[in-house]
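TL;DR need structure tokens for one chain.
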Amino acid sequence: MIELVNLLSDWVGNNWGVIDGLLVTIGLIIYVAASHTLHQRRHPSAAIAWVLGIVLLPFLTLPLYLAFGSRKVVASRQPPGKRQTAVSVSATHATVARSQQLGMAMGLPVPVAFAQFSVHADGTHALAALRRVIDGARRTLEVSTFLFGRDVLGDEIAELLKQRARAGVRVRLLIDGIGIYLGGYPDLKGFAEAGVEVIRFVPPFRSPKRGRTNLRNHRKMVIADGTHLWCGGRNLAAEYFEGDPRPLLGSKPWLDLSFDLGGELAGQALRQFELDWAFATERRLPPSLVAQAPASVSGGLAQLVASGPDQPDDTIFTLLISGCFTSQQRILAVTPYFVPDASLLTALTLAARRGIEVDLVLPARSNHRLADFARHRSLRDLVAAGGRVWLHPRMIHAKAVLIDDELALAGSANLDGRSLFLNYELMVAFYERTAVRDFSDWIEARRQESAPYVARRPGIIRELVEGLLLWLAFQL
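>> reply
TL;DR here they are.
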């Protein structure tokens, strides 16, 4: 046995160059094949990093790529050049017409009607609406969240879900496999005893979905009976609503943005939840859940915009780029983190240079210090082009982008590479002016409370560190 080990060791030592070269070749073949088959259109810095890693450190990089390297888990639904683009869109504004057409060409659900719409003024209003939606469920209740807090808010929502389950409502809770650890880990046994079905979305340590551990479910929605939707940027934890006043466990509330509505759009949200549930449980979709065909649409509607590894296209990113080029008056945005890729930053700066009012509202200090540090290079470019940046004294977790008075994109996606290219995200595109105005009023109130950002010329060391952080921007 010892002689066999020695012989094997000698053979490996004599042929190390061959083994290393073979592993590099295999790694590059896997990388190219996966990128081509699943249309893994990566940011250039990410692509260069993976290729260099495979060439220089194949024994380390290849296992990491197999575990974390996938960006898309579906191939294109149709061959290139065969996408559905012959859709009838009735809209007078270029942004609305282009967004609706792009959405349907990318296979998104058709714009549909919505009713009983409300933008939540603050955490108290959002919590009251959430309670109302949960209490109103009579048949089914679906909840999707990135994290579920083990705090005063999480405890209350958990009890409400259990009550509905005990009353005979089918309650399903989908929590991200990483996010479940970030909020204090909910009482899964208590949920099960009450009849609440809980599924973790791609748990990191025992998921069969290889290569997808880095792709997190950031979608937030609560759907009652398929007819009422509560949605936005809030996770189900105290800091996203009213804070937690308990000693030691206390937390101050953040500023966040959410909304609720009824109508056909809630049905679209239910279909998306079913897709996510089927993916997480490795089960087939119910036969009734078939894709909607493109149809003629008109104004006063809204459209569910899912983005992430389950979409062939980078849907939110595409609509943002298009909106920047079709805008005619103003772009108003709020986000906690601003680390855009070069294309989105260019689109925003070009809009500012051609006279569009570009206003961006950010927290002066977010909960991610690296993202705060990395954002300054983009902020300097935007301000130099004529855009205006506003820093709010409180932590803002809201995510919305408005184009003129015609389009509002609101939901879970931040303006950074992770949200736009890696995470499973959910936004709603509103094409109704009253709804757009309600979002505008909320963001404008935050802008009025903010101070203008003053760009300062960086030193050599800071500029170098910013560049290194931007190279890793996907992870910020």
